[in-house]
Structures are given as C-alpha cells and as structure tokens.
C-alpha cells in the first residue's frame, strides 16, 4: 500500500513565530492582508477600528507620525469576540485581549482579577492554551502609597485571577502605566499550541522571589520566553533592576545603560547571539516626556538600526525612569 500524503504530513512542525514589525500604514490596509493576527495603534490619536484584532494602546507615542505594530503569521487567521474579550487565531497562535473598566469591577484589584479570570477561562478552552507573552497597561500605576499603590493592587488581582493557571511557569510579561483614563485596564496576550522555554536573567532575582518590600503579592512573570520553534525570544519589560533592587535612582543614563546590560545578559542566558538588529522591534517606555530625546539618542548610538517605538509609560516602580521590551529574532 502506498503511503498517503496525509501520513507524511501527520506530524506538523512547530509553529513559526509571528512576525512582529512596525509599519507606517493604515489599520484597514494591514487588517486586509492575509495572516494578520493583531494590529496595535498608539495613543489618543489612533483611530478606533471595529475589528477584534485591533487594539488602541493607551500610551502616547513620542514619534510622529506613529507606526502601527503588526503581528503576522504564515497562515489563515480567524477572529471573533467572546463577550468583552477579543480574539484571533491562526497557524497555532492565539491573540486575546480584554480591557475592563475598573469602575465596573470594584476598582483595580477587581478589574485585574476579572481580566485574568476571563483570559484564563477563554485560553484554557482553546488548543492554543500555552500563554507565552502577556502585556498589562495600567492607568496611574504609581498612585497610592505602600501596599495601596495601584500597581500592587493590580498584582493582587492578577494573582487571584490567574489562580493556578501558570503553575508550570509564568509567561513573559510587561506591566506599564499609561496616562489615559485611569480606570481603563488593558491586558492582551500571545498564546500558542506549543510551550515555549522560559528564560531568567542571572543578574536579576526572579520576580516571583521578590522580597516583601515590593508588595504583598510578588509579580509572576518570566524575564523572557523562547517561542516554540526557537526562532524568537520574547523579552519581558526590562529595567535597571539588579538583584531585586532598583539601580541608579535618579540617573536616567545609568538606568538605561543598566537596562542594556540586563538585555545582553538575557540574550546570553537564552543562547541568542548578542545584540539586536533591524528585525528586532523594541519598545522604550519613558516616564518623563522630557527624557525621551535623550533616550532616543542613546538608543540610536547603542542599538543602531534597531526599530524602537518610544512610548510615554511609567515603570511599575516609581524610581525607575525607563524600561525596554520587545523581540529578538534568531
Ligand atoms: C522589574 O524588573 C520591572 O508585573 O508583570 C517588568 C515586567 C516589571 C513585568 C509585571 C513588572 C512586570 O521588576 C517591572
């Protein structure tokens, strides 16, 4: 009997990572392209677009004109809504997003809990149930004192909402403040049919081991995640944290240098080649708009040719002035 094609193809390869890029274009144009999994606009100037793959991020860009961020896969994409949760999938990948209004969930703790409960239940019922990377954008993130700081309340709600969903290991993540409506929480994720490989940074205490001084509930996230085909490293929000302490308080340039040192250590730890290139889209979240030109200048020197989108975003520790995250393609 002749072996059929089906047999030869029965063992599908690992899904190739989505291509993440910035492009100066219109949402409608890229949403019409095959393989578009998600499209992000930035700030109040971005349009609202009625497509579950579209997300308008609350952070204001420092670049004008501002590109869109695109996630594209080499497969057909389907999309839909599940109540207030938006999703799309294709090629083994899943995008899911939810943007609860804190006023409808009893405040920041309730909204974070709700977001993570909804995402966990939705993703848990999908073939693409391995959450590899997650982003959290929080209004007025440093408002409130001590354990009442809004970031710490977010951490509390997140921990309740995720339950034991990440018992085998946390995804890579970013949690950054925005200056849009304070009650508007934005959470979105990238999940896959296959697990990735978590990467920690030898220069940093793993976040889930942070001591009590940073809050009752330690943040749960991996420093980075190698995606299943090992072709991309998804890099979590990275700042001037050494050990568990914030380094160079009050010194923007030293913090940025320390952050770049952390990124180099992370690439080494992930067995990735050193450095970033034109296919490594990064974001720089800058606390004080007045610092943005200096951050841009330093990054252009240190990471020539690397696409960096600069956003007005507050790091979750009020003494930290800048944070980077993004992607490193092998
Ligand atoms: C840090 O290194 C900076 O709470 O999900 C970075 C990435 C940070 C993710 C999160 C927090 C989070 O601790 C803060």
UniProtKB/TrEMBL annotation:
Positions of the Chorismatase FkbO/Hyg5-like N-terminal domain: 69-191
Keyword DNA repair: no
Keywords: Lyase
Name of the featured protein: Chorismate lyase / 3-hydroxybenzoate synthase
InterPro entries for the chain: FkbO_Hyg5-like_N, RutC-like_sf
Signal peptide range: none
UniProt GO molecular function: lyase activity
Record has Glycoprotein as a keyword: no
UniProt xrefs under Pfam families: FkbO_Hyg5-like_N (PF21168)
Species name: Rhodanobacter glycinis
């Amino acid at each position: 009997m002749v072996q059929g094609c089906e047999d030869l193809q029965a063992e599908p390869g690992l899904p190739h990572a989505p291509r993440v890029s910035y492009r100066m274009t219109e949402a409608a144009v890229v949403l019409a392209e095959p393989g578009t999994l998600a499209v992000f606009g930035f700030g109040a100037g971005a349009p609202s677009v009625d497509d579950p793959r579209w997300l308008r991020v609350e952070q204001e860009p420092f670049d004008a004109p501002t590109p869109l961020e695109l996630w594209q896969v080499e497969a057909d994409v389907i999309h839909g809504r599940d109540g207030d949760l938006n999703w799309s999938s294709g090629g083994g990948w899943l995008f899911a997003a939810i943007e609860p209004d804190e006023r409808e969930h009893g405040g920041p703790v309730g909204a974070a809990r709700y977001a993570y409960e909804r995402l966990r239940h939705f993703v848990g019922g999908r073939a693409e149930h391995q959450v590899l990377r997650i982003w959290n954008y929080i209004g007025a993130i440093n408002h409130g004192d001590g354990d009442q700081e809004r970031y710490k309340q977010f951490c509390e709600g997140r921990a309740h909402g995720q339950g034991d969903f990440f018992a085998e290991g946390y995804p890579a993540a970013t949690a950054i403040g925005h200056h849009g409506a304070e009650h508007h929480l934005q959470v979105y994720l990238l999940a896959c049919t296959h697990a990735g490989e978590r990467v920690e940074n030898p220069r940093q205490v793993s976040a889930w081991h942070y001591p009590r001084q940073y809050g009752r509930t330690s943040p749960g996230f991996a420093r980075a995640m190698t995606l299943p085909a090992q072709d991309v490293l998804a890099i979590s929000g990275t700042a001037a944290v050494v050990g568990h302490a914030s380094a160079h308080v009050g010194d923007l340039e030293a913090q940025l240098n320390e952050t770049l040192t952390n990124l180099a250590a992370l690439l080494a730890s992930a067995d990735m080649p050193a450095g970033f290139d034109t296919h490594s889209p990064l974001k720089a979240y800058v606390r004080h708009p007045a610092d943005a030109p200096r951050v841009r200048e330093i990054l252009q020197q240190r990471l020539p040719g690397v696409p960096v989108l600069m956003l007005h975003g507050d790091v979750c520790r009020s003494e930290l002035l800048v944070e980077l995250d993004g992607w490193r393609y092998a």
